[in-house]
Predict the structure of Porin.
Amino acid sequence: MNFKKTVTLGLIAAFALIFNHQSLGQDDWTPRKHITGYINTIAEYSNQDNLNKNFGVGLSEVGLLVTYQPLPELELKATGVYSHYMFHVSQLLVEVYGMYSFSDGFKLGLGRFLTPLSPINQYFYAPLNPSGVVPMLVSHHFLFPQSISGFQIAGEFELGSSSKFGYNASIGSYAYINHFESGILGIQAQEDSYPTFGYYDTELDKINNYLCGTGRAYANFNDVLTIGANLFLADAQQFAQDEFEEYQYYPSTKYTYGFDAHLHINNLKVNAEYWGGQQKTNDEIPVPQPDGQIKYEYIKNDYVGYYAEIIYDRDVVKPFARYDFIEDINVNGIGLPTSAATVGLAVRPRFETLLKLEYKRIFATEITDFENQLSQDNDYDHIQLSFVLSF
C-alpha cells in the first residue's frame, strides 16, 4: 500500500471514530491543538581528506509539529522536517497519522510513523537532544528506516505499583534510503564510506518502497530503568556489480534485531543499544570472479551497530559523552567498521534557545586495494556547533 492510500484510509477511519463518539453524546470535550517547531543552524568542520570543503555554515533543519486532539481518545499528528540534502517530499513528512486509544493497553494508529524501535529515533528532533548528531546506527537508516507508512498498535500496562510493560508493533511500507547524508558538509551518516569513496549523492540510488514489519516490547522499573527488545523484518534491495562492472539492484530480504537499556537517576542518564542483522538476495545472482568467470551465488550483508552514552542532564547545562560503532557496508568482501568517540555540551539558557558544541573523533577504514582486499585505518575529526531556536 502506498503512502497516499495509507493516509487516506487513516483520515477516513479518524472521521468515522469522531462521528461515532459524537453520536454517543460526547459533546462536552473541547478539542485541543498544539503547534510547535524549531530552526537549527549549524557550523561544521572536518579534516577528512575526501571532503570537497572542510568547513561549512548553513541551515541544517527546520521542523514543524502539529497535534490536534478532537476527542479524548483520538490524536492526529503531522510532523514535517526539512533538511539540507532533501530531494523528495516523502522525506519531508516524517509523521502523519491518527492514533485512537481504546484503552491504555491498546491503541490503534494509521498513517506514517517514526519507526517505533530505537527510542532515540522517535526523539531525534534537535531541541530534544544534547547531541547535534545522533548515533550512527540511527542516522544511517540501514538497520531500520526513519519512518514507516501503515498500521500500528501500541499499549502499556501497570506491573504493580512502580513498573510498566509496553509494546508496539507496526506493518506497512518504507522507502529504501540509507546512508542519507545530512549536515552541511554531507559527511554525517556517511562517516564510514567517506574515507574510501568520498561523497555519495543518495539521490542517485534507486529508491523503492518495500513491505516491512516491526515489533518492540519494553519494561520500565520505577521510572529509573527501561529495557527493550526490538525486531525489524522487511523486503529490501541489495546492490552488486555485474559482469560489465555496472551496479544492479536485486530483490532481497532483511532482518534486524536490537536491545536497548536506559538508566535515569536524578540528573544522570545512561543510554545504550546493540543491534545486529543480515540482508540477503532472494535468488543467486551473477558475481564476477577475479579470473573473469561468472559465478552465481547469494549476496548477503551482515551488519551490526551499537552505542553507549552518558548525559548529565541539568536545566541549563548538559554535558555528555558517547561511543558508537557501525558496520553496515561490505564491498567485495571488505567491511568498513567505523567507530566514533564524542564529547559535547548543550546549553539552554531559555527554553526556546539551545546551543550545542560537540567534538567527534571518527575511527574509520579505507580500502586501498579492492582486488586484494587490502585496507588501512583512516581516522579524522568532526566538530559541530549548533544553534536551535524553538517555538
